[in-house]
C-alpha cells in the first residue's frame, strides 16, 4: 500500500489514504468506525494471507459490515465488548459478498437482520428486495445498502450519509485498498461491471473504506 502522504489520481479524482489513527467518522445520527482494517499479503510460496475489513456503524440502529474470517471471532467479540455491545445488540449485519474473510462470523448474530450480497433475511425468512435490479435497500434515511457488483456477481456496499467526513462508503472488495489501480482486476469476476461500480463510488463518496486496507478520502477536481 502507498504511504499516507501519497495520492492516487484517476479520472479527475484523487484518492488520499488515511492513517491508522483515522478510523472513526463521527456523525449524526450515525457514526462509522473501522474495527479492523483488512489486508492482503502475497507470500513467497505463491499463496497470500488475507482478511477483510470489519466496520461498525452506530446510531439509531447498530450495523456491522463484514465480520472478518472465522479466525477473527475472539477479536470481534472483544471489539464489540469494548464498545459496550454484545452480539444480540447488533440489529443488522451486512456481508458485502460471500468470501470467507468477510462473512466468517455470521453465526454470532442470529437475531440480526442479515444482508449478504443480494439476500436479505431474518432467521429463515427471506425478504423481497430490488438489489439485483440495481436499487438500494434502505436501512435508515441516512444508511443504504447499494449494489456494487463486479468483484463477485452480487457485491454490495453500505452508504452512510451525514458523518463529519461527509458520505462514507463501506465498500467491501469493490476497492482492495487505496492504491489498487490495477490489482483489483486480477480478483474481479467482471472487470467491466466493477469498473462502472468503482467510478460511481468515486463520484458519490467522500470517504471509502476498502476491503483490504485503510480508509481513503476522495477529492474531486
UniProtKB/TrEMBL annotation:
Q: Which domain of life is it from?
A: Eukaryota
Q: Please report the stretch or stretches of sequence annotated as the Metallo-beta-lactamase domain.
A: 51-212
The record's subcellular location field reads: Cytoplasm, Cytosol
Stretches assigned to coiled coil: none
UniProt cross-references to Pfam families, sorted A to Z: Lactamase_B
On assembly, the entry states: Homodimer.
Protein family membership: Belongs to the metallo-beta-lactamase superfamily. Glyoxalase II family.
Q: What is this protein called?
A: Metallo-beta-lactamase domain-containing protein 1
What organism does the UniProt record list as the source? Seriola lalandi dorsalis
Q: What is the lineage of its organism?
A: Eukaryota, Metazoa, Chordata, Craniata, Vertebrata
Amino acid at each position: 500500500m502507498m504511504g499516507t502522504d501519497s495520492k492516487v489520481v484517476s479520472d479527475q479524482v484523487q484518492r488520499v489514504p488515511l492513517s491508522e489513527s483515522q478510523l472513526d467518522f463521527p456523525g449524526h445520527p450515525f457514526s462509522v468506525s473501522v474495527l479492523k482494517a483488512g489486508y492482503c499479503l502475497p507470500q513467497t510460496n505463491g499463496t497470500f494471507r488475507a482478511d477483510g475489513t470489519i466496520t461498525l456503524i452506530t446510531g439509531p440502529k447498530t450495523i456491522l459490515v463484514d465480520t472478518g474470517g472465522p479466525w477473527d471471532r475472539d477479536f470481534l467479540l472483544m471489539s464489540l465488548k469494548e464498545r459496550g455491545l454484545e452480539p444480540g445488540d447488533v440489529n443488522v449485519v451486512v456481508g458485502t459478498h460471500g468470501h470467507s474473510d468477510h462473512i466468517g462470523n455470521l453465526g454470532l448474530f442470529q437475531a440480526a437482520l442479515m444482508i449478504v450480497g443480494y439476500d436479505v433475511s431474518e432467521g429463515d425468512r427471506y425478504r423481497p428486495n430490488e438489489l439485483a435490479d440495481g436499487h438500494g435497500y434502505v436501512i435508515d434515511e441516512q444508511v443504504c445498502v447499494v449494489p456494487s457488483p463486479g468483484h463477485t456477481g452480487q457485491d454490495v456496499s453500505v452508504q452512510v450519509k451525514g458523518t463529519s467526513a461527509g458520505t462514507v462508503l463501506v465498500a467491501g472488495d469493490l476497492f482492495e485498498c487505496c492504491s489498487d489501480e490495477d490489482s483489483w482486476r486480477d480478483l474481479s469476476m467482471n472487470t467491466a461491471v466493477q469498473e462502472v461500480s468503482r467510478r460511481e463510488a468515486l463520484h458519490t463518496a467522500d470517504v471509502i473504506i476498502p476491503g483490504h486496507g485503510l480508509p481513503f478520502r476522495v477529492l474531486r477536481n
